Amino acid sequence: MKRFLPLAALLAATPVMAQQAPHADPNPGVTAAREVWTQAHNYVTKSAEQMPEEKFSFRPVDSVRTFGELVGHVAGAEMMFCAAALGEKVPGEDAVEKTAKTKADLVAALKKSADYCARAYALTDAGASSPLTIFGMKMSGLGVLTLNAAHDYEHYGNIVTYLRINGMVPPSSQPAR
Predict the structure, then answer these.
(1) What is the pLDDT of residues 21-61, one digit of tens each?
(2) Which of 5, 21, 24, 168 is the most buried (most CB within 10 A)?
(3) Average pLDDT, the chain
(4) What is the dihedral of CA 115, 120, 122, 123, to 10 degrees?
(5) Main-chain dihedrals φ then ψ at residue 121, nearest 5 degrees
């Protein structure tokens, strides 16, 4: 009988819980974009933290960025995309890539871009609906935030290759802790 008491309590509470309105997200567009970007950004950051300092100069072939340049490109692009969504100006997307050279500097740049982008991903759906132009394309701030998330995942795909070539398991393939 004792094992059925918790089940009976749950069943008795079900009608009360069903009467409560579900919590509706007032900004589902920005929330969805933020969730995708957060995961992509965290994978890039964990990859940068995982890669040994001496491998930041690694490039699979001469015609592509080094690992460090790729990380710097992501950090700079995040600043550029988020500034556009906020209606602000920041240095060009390649500023971080050209100035940050050490692992510590590049990981710090990713953390700085995350802090900056947190403001953009805190916009309301209405606040992110303003039209703007980026790379000659007209889109809303929400479109730019979505593009930022897609860009991070695009380059995370490159990063996965760099890690695998160097015998490492990328964060998205590591067991959950």
Answers:
(1) 567 999 999 999 999 999 999 999 999 999 999 999 999 99
(2) 168
(3) 89
(4) 170
(5) -80, 0
